[in-house]
Amino acid sequence: MNRIPELANATPELRDACARAVGFALQEETVEQIRSMGAVDTGAMMNSVYLETHSMSERGAAVSAAATRAGAASKEFLEAIPSGRPGRGMSKVALAANYAVYVHQGARGRASRPFLMVAGQNVSGQARRIVAGLVKEWAG
C-alpha cells in the first residue's frame, strides 16, 4: 500500500519540506531549460528565477541579481512585478524579469520557448521520488 500521500500530509513541517524540495528542483530545472533553449542574452532572466514558500523568499536576491545583469535602469521594471507568497505546504517558482512571459509564450514573430512548462514536466516525474525520500527520512 502506498502511504506516501498520507504521511506527506501528516505534519505541516513535512509538507513544507516537501514543497521546498520540489520547488528547488523546479527552480534549478527552470534555469537549465532557459539555458538549453538559448533564451540567454544578458543572463538577467536566468538570474531572475526565484523560489518562494510561506516562510522564505528568494525574490529580493533574484531582483538584485537580474538588475545587475540587465543594468540599473531595468531594476524598476523588475521590482514592479507583484509577488504573493504561497500557503503552507506549497511553493512557487517565478521569474522577476517582466519580459519572461514573452520569451515563454513567444511574441512579435518570435517562437515560444516554453522553458517553465518543460521544466515543470521534467520535475513532475521527479517529485514522487523527492517526496518519498523526505518522507522516509522524516519517518526515521
At a glance:
With 140 residues, the protein is mainly alpha-helical. 59% of the residues lie in helices and 7% in strands.
How would you describe this protein?
By secondary structure, this protein is mostly helical. The chain has helices spanning 4-8, 12-36, 44-47, 59-70, 75-79, 100-105, 115-139, and strands at residues 49-53, 91-95. Strands 1-2 form a two-stranded antiparallel sheet. It starts with a helix and ends with a helix.
Produce the secondary structure layout:
Blueprint: H1 4-8, H2 12-36, H3 44-47, E1 49-53, H4 59-70, H5 75-79, E2 91-95, H6 100-105, H7 115-139
Antiparallel strand pairs: 1-2
Q: Radius of gyration from the CA trace?
A: 17 Å
Strand fraction: 5-15%
Q: How many helical elements?
A: 7
Given the helix and strand composition, which structural class is it?
mainly alpha
Sheet with most strands: 2 strands, antiparallel
Strand order of the largest sheet: 1-2
Q: Which outline best applies? A: globular
Name the poorly predicted regions.
none
- What is the arithmetic mean of pLDDT? 83
Order of helices and strands: HHHEHHEHH
Query: Terminal Cα separation, in Å?
Result: 19 Å
Descriptors:
mainly alpha, two-stranded antiparallel sheet, 140 residues, 7% strand
